[in-house]
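fyi for ur records
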Amino acid sequence: MSTAGFMVSTVDDRKSVVVLSGAGMSAESGLKTFRDSDGLWEGHKVEDVATPEAWQRNPEAVLRFYNERRRQLMRAEPNDGHLALARLEEGYEVSVITQNVDDLHERAGSSSVLHLHGELDVARSTVDDRLLYRLHGKEIRLGDVCDKGSQLRPHVVWFGESVPAMEVAEPIVRGADVLMVVGTSLLVYPAASLIDFAESAARKVWISPKESADVLPLGFEKVLKTAAIGIPDLVSDLLAEEKLD
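which gave:
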């Protein structure tokens, strides 16, 4: 998994805020990055567009699906939640670990972003996963090949594939002074297990507009707001606290 765009700060005297973001974060920018309540993703069965088996059966259909998602992404803009997280870097070491495949965190200005499930605007070789190509919004078509002559595929972790970026994410969460979970139900594994690596002394905050749909993990404060409202409010509080220290 690419960790392009992820950078560990070397500033030692600032507190660390680690953000785990999920589909709800991007939904407020108009993107659907995971399956809906009916089990479909943008009207498609997940097993038809987001599995290695689907790629083997009908690569053209899979490419068409992700090309459309990429076009949709190019029209989307970061929301106030994304922008607030970038602003938080004024006073904290901020690491964003996202389940989302869009680049809205980066476009908002966050400097350290780790994509657990890949990046929509990146293509990958089908024979060497180290060969990655930034697409800049362009389509991937059948016949587009890597430097080794193999077909390119979306750089997205499909169901049934491993999540190698977890090995990078775990120590980052361990180092958090503040752990912020936003836009995720914590039902998708292995990403959901990351909260277990936070130190007991870390402040833990879960931002979600849903009162009853989610089960609040032990030790978490719950902010009953959407990402675009809850994150700016929390960021303002954190920056005010930092100035008082």
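Residues 227-244 form the longest helix (18 residues). thats all i got for now
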